[in-house]
Design brief:
There is one protein chain. By secondary structure, this protein is mainly α. It has one domain: dinb family like domain (Four Helix Bundle (Hemerythrin (Met), subunit A), Up-down Bundle), CATH 1.20.120.450. 57% of the residues lie in helices and 4% in strands. The protein has a two-stranded antiparallel sheet. α3 packs parallel to α5. The longest helix has 23 residues. The chain is globular, with a radius of gyration of 16 Å. The two termini are 30 Å apart.
Length: 171
């Protein structure tokens, strides 16, 4: 449950993402979000992918790629920490990832398929963690992080961008 997630397991920078989530178990959130997000994506048109809400802002395609990339990174962080690898994990520069991804060249169908695959992999990963594994704390981006916190942060991040699609992009 999100309300039971100790703040000692994550950087408070991520609180805004966690606060966007219902007070439910991580796996339920991930599965419910998958259904909601895929439904949202299937309602888009190919032309929507190139839309940015203002000059210099990311296109819908770039945001979709960012959400997928971030989810993968947090899954890797969760796996590394759960497996007791004490190597401090670096941060990542999401602003560098976007142009390198060439996101605007992809189809909507490819984004739907990739999101489903990445989310399914995450669900399987988090389902595989026993309680002691899920609560281990390691270091990522020079902050404390547990695998369960990584899952909640990733889910909250995806929800954050879904809300932005609705409020800023008019989708």
């Amino acid at each position: 449950m999100t309300s039971e997630l100790p703040t000692s397991e994550y950087n408070t920078f991520y609180q805004t993402y966690i606060d966007k989530l219902p007070d439910e178990e991580l796996i339920k959130i991930l599965k419910d979000q998958k259904t909601e997000y895929v439904s949202f994506l299937k309602g888009l048109k190919e032309d929507d992918l190139k839309h940015a809400y203002a000059e210099g802002k990311w296109t819908v395609a770039q945001v979709l790629q960012h959400v997928i990339d971030t989810e993968r990174i947090f899954q890797y962080r969760a796996l590394t920490i759960a497996r007791e690898d004490l190597t401090p994990l670096p941060g990542f520069d999401h602003d560098a990832y976007v142009p390198a991804s060439k996101a605007n060249r992809r189809s909507l169908e490819s984004y739907i398929a990739e999101f489903e695959a990445v989310r399914d992999a995450g669900i399987a990963l988090f389902e595989s963690f026993e309680e002691d594994m899920s609560g281990r704390v390691g270091e990522a981006s020079r902050s404390q992080l547990s695998p369960r916190a990584a899952g909640f942060i990733s889910a909250g991040h995806q929800k954050h961008h879904l809300l932005l699609f609705k409020s800023h992009y008019g989708l």
